[in-house]
Amino acid sequence: MMTFFEEVYALLKTIPSGKVTTYGDIAKALGRPRSSRVVGYALHVNPDPENIPCYKVVNREGYLAPAFAFGGEQMQRALLEGEGIKVTNGRVELSKYRHKF
User: Fold this and answer.
1) How many domains does the chain have?
2) pLDDT value of residue 68
3) In 1-101, where does DSSP find H-type helix?
């Protein structure tokens, strides 16, 4: 049986290139809709950022993480833009780029 953090990491690996999700979307998909902050903490302590794409997670309004744990907001922006995701004023258009679980 996986821990909640392991479930978060496994789910993140299923997000296709060019798509993002929110902390709340992950929490809901894992059956714990009130655990978006726990999802955020799991991402902050990501043990393998090269293989667990925590940069694909934005807040419920599409904004990037101001304190992205692995290089700051500019690194998150660069990684998302590298997948063809347009970031405008620190925000991703969720209606266009949101992945549905």
Assistant:
1) 1
2) 66
3) 4-12, 23-29, 36-44, 72-81, 94-97
At residue 56, the pLDDT reads: 96
**Helix or strand holding residue 21 (H, E):** strand 21-22
Structural domain containing residue 17:
4-97
Q: What is the CATH number of the domain that holds 91?
A: 1.10.10.10
pTM of the model: 0.93
Strand pairing report for 91-92 and 87-88 = antiparallel
Distance (Å, rounded) from C-alpha 49 to C-alpha 95?
26
Q: What is the pLDDT of residues 18-67, one digit of tens each?
A: 999 999 999 999 999 999 999 999 999 999 988 999 999 999 999 998 87
Residue 55, token pair as written in the block: 């940069």
54, 57, 58, 65: which is the annotated catalytic residue? 54
Active site residue 54: yes
